[in-house]
Amino acid sequence: TKTARHTDHRIEARLLFAFKFLTGSLGCIGWFIVILSGIFTICLFPITIWFCLKIVQEYERAVIFRLGRITDRKAKGPGIFFVLPCTDSFVKVDLRTVSFDIPPQEILTKDSVTVCVDGVVYFRVSDPIASVANVSNADFSTRLLAQTTLRNVLGTKNLAELLSDREGIAHSMQSSLDEATDDWGIKVERVEIKDVKLPVQLQRAMAAEAEAAREARAKVIAAEGEMNASRALKEASLVIAESPSALQLRYLQTLNTIAAEKNSTIIFPLPMDVMSHFMKK
Length: 281
Known about the structure:
alpha+beta, Tetrahydropterin Synthase, Chain A, 3 domains, 3-stranded antiparallel sheet, 10 helices, 57% helix
């Protein structure tokens, strides 16, 4: 009947799905080994329990391999998880932020100046499975890539930009590193330029240039001060010329200042018209 045929088709579909499920990932031999390992674990349960239970810390995750294949698309942990002996193996991945110093790099800038630059990089594992399956050593690979990225980014900058725009250079390096390590399951959180060492000859040349600029600026300021002082003296002379008694008051004020300093010599200024009168006689 139609009902019986429909039931037979459903049973066949379920059997076909179960067969594909069993043979799709591990294959028939693989599942046979897994089942055999499970039976062995159950039979020797009091002993195998110590080999089956594993613990990872709060900041760790475990990537489990069963007969060389990753069992789940999500890492296990934190806490206790179960593995089968003989068929399962796992790799612990640390999720904490790691920092490392970029060794000093000899870099030729855009304006052909050789400088020595070092820095520091902070990164962490964002995808434990990708960091294990997609790269052999995520930590070492990130360190090498950071050195290369530092050379490539600073090679496009001139010396003035390198000394004044460290924040922009660090942001550019972080973006490049984060994009390159995304397939490795690595998240670059921060990049900082620590020190820029210039050649001794270049340091002396820059110091001489800065000293000359300061001296020129000091001369300009002194000239402006003399000009302002001369204008003030001119205005003062015009005021004194309008009132002859102002000169006498100024003279008495000057004598008072000299007497306060306990000087033994006092100079009396005389008007030029008086001196000219005696010179004629």
